[in-house]
Request: fold
Amino acid sequence: MVSRYAETYARWQRDPEAFWAAAAQEIDWVEPPAKIFDPAAGACGRWFPDATCNTCWNALDRHVAKGRAAQPGLIYDSPVTGTKQTLTYAELLDEVRTFAAVLTDFGVGKGDRIIIYMPMIPEAAVAMLACARIGAIHSVVFGGFAAREIAARIDDAQPRLLLTASCGIEPGRIVAYKPLVDEALVLCRAKPQACILFQRAQAEAALVPGRDHDWATLTAKARAQGRKTDCVAVRATDPLYIIYTSGTTGKPKGIVRDNGGHLVALEWTMHNLYGIEPGEVFWAASDIGWVVGHSYIVYGPLIHGATGLMYEGKPVGTPDAGAFWRVIDEHKVAALFCAPTAFRAVKRADPEAKLLAGYDVSAMRTLFLAGERADPDTIQWAERILKVPVIDHWWQTETGWCIVGNPAGLGLLPVKYGSPSVPMPGYDLHVVDEGGKPAPTASMGSIVLKLPLPPGSLPTLWNADDRMRESYLVEFPGYYKTADAGYRDADGYVYVMGRTDDIINVAGHRLSTGAMEEVLASHPDVAECAVVGVKDALKGEAPCGFIVLKSGVNRTTGEVEKEVVELVRHKIGPVASFKLAITVDRLPKTRSGKILRGTMKKIADRESWTLPATVDDPAIFDEITAAVRAKGL
Ligand code: COA
Ligand code: AMP
Reply:
C-alpha cells in the first residue's frame, strides 16, 4: 500500500484547524466545538475551548450504546497471580458507574483530584475511568516509587482521596503498598480526607479506622443499592488527569492532560498511527503509572472501541521469555507496544527465540517500540523472529502521544534503523543550534516543536504556568523545547539521540539524575556528588553515582556506598535502579565550578573524549578512570 502519510501531513500543514476539526468528528461531544483553537488562551493556546464532553462516555457508554456491550473492553492477564479476566464493555461500564457512585459518596466532584497508587489490576483502570466519569482529575503514581515520591505528588495535587491496593507483585517479591502509603500520608502536608484500599489476597493490609475504607465493601454496598452514576459534562479544556514526570529537580512536573484534545488525538492515533480497527486487541506492555499506560492500556483502545490489555507480569521470568508470545497468542493481539528494553530482556534470555515455536503469534501485524532509543540490533532481532514490521516511535509524557513515528494506518514508510521516522501531523519539528538557528541537514541540534502543540499535548503544568514557560517555552521563543537532541536527514527522517538535560532513561523509565543527586547529597557523610547515566546492555542506561566524602569521615567507602544505594531506594524507589555508587577524592569541574558530568559519562562508557578546555585539573580524569574501571565499568 502506498503511504498516505505525505498527503495527510500536507493536509494538516495547509490548515491545522480544519484537520483537527475533522478528527474531532470521531468523538461524541455534549456541546461540539464551534471554535477549534484559541491561540490567546493559556500558556500556549487551547484546543476546542468552547466544547464540552466526557471522556468516560467516549470510552464506554457510547460503545455499549452502539452494540459493543458484549465485546471485551479490557483483558487482564496476570502471570504473577495466575489470574486472567476479561471485562466486556458492559461489565466495565457497570464497574465504573458503581465505583463512580462510591467516589461521589465521599463528596468527590468535578475538578477534585484523586491519587491512584495501584498495581496493574483492572480496579486501577476502573478508578481512572470513574474519575473521568464525574469530572474528577486522577493522578496515577507508578508502583515502583517510594513514600517520599508519593508524598510529593500528594502535596502538589492536593487530592481529596487516595486510592490504593494492599500490594503489588514483583517476581519473587510481594510489595506491600500500605506501609508506603502510610509513610507518605505522614510525610505529606496536604492530607487527603480518606483512603480507599483494594485488598489483594497476596497481602492483606490493616486499615486505619476512620481514614481507610475497604474498596470491596464500599463497592458491594453501592451495587446492592443499585447506585449508578452518569457522566458529567466537562469542558474540553478541563483536566482529565495530571501525570507527574521527572523534571530537572527533585520536584516532579505535573503534566496536565485535558479532556477534549486528548480524546481527539488518541482516537486519531489508534487508526492512523497504529492501524487498529475497533474490536481488535491492542497491547501496550507498559504500566498504568506511565503515560504509555494511560494512553494505550486504558484510554486509546477504549475510545476507539478496541480492546485494551493489562498485563501484570514481565517479559522474562513470569515464567519465562515466552511470556509475550503466550499473551499474543492467547488474546490474539493485533499490535504490541513496548519498550526496547523488554525485547532486549527476551533476546538475552532466549537469543534464538526458541520459545516462540510453541505459540501462534500470527494475529500480530506490527510491533511498536518507544520509551527510549531503539537500538538497531534489537529492532532487527525482533523483525527476524516475528516477521512483522518493527516500528520505533518517539514521544514524551508531555505530548501524550507520538511526535515522530511511522504510521501503520496511513501505510508504512520505509524503515530506517535508528530513526523513529517522521513527524506526525500536529508536530512542526525543527532542529536548531544553541542560538535557535536551524541546524544544517544531518547536523545535531536541539529538537524543538513550533507552537502550537497539537491536541492532547500538555497545555500547562499543574498550578505552575510559570514553570511551564521556564521549562519548555522560554529558551526557544515560539517553540516547545523537547529537551531531546538529534538530527534530520535529507529525507526528513528524524534521529533522536539523547536528552539535553539531566533526564536518563532506565529500562524505559524516565528518571532525573538531579533528583538522585539530591538524595545522595542528603547523606551526612557526602560532601559532593554527581550522578550520570552509564550504558547498560539490558536497561539502555543505568545510574552511576560518584560521591566525595566529607573530610574526617572515619568509615569505609564500601559502607557509605551501600548506604547511599539504600537511601535512593528508600527515597525515590526501586524503579530508580540505583545500584552503583563510586567514591572518588574529587569531581572534575570547570574553573567556574561546573561538574563535568558529560566527560565522566564518556569515561565510564569507554567512549572517546577530549579534555575540556576549561577543566580545573586534568589529573582528576585519571582518578575517575581508575575508579570506574575498579568497579568493572
Ligand atoms: N512496583 C514495585 N516495584 C517495581 C515495580 C512496581 N510496579 N516495577 C519495577 N519495580 C522494581 C523492580 O522489582 C526492580 O526491583 P529490584 O531492584 O529489587 O530488582 C526495580 O524496580 C527496577 O525495575 P526495572 O528497571 O523494571 O527492572 P527489572 O529487573 O524488574 O525488569 C525489564 C527489567 C527489562 C524486564 C523491565 O524493566 C521491563 O519490562 N521494562 C519495560 C519498561 C516499560 O514498560 N516501560 C514503559 C514505557 S513503554
Ligand atoms: P517519557 O516521558 O517517560 O515517555 O520519556 C520521554 C523521553 O524518552 C524522551 O524525551 C526521549 O528522551 C526518550 N524516548 C522516548 N521514546 C524514544 C524513542 N523512540 N527514541 C529515542 N528516545 C526516546
The chain is about 30% helix and 25% strand. The pocket of coenzyme A (ligand 1) is lined by residues 143-144, 168, 170, 175, 285-287, 290, 292, 314-316, 338-339, 341-342, 345, 370-371, 506-509, 539, 574-575, 577 (CB under 6 Å). The first strand starts at residue 37 and ends at 38. The chain has a mean pLDDT of 96.
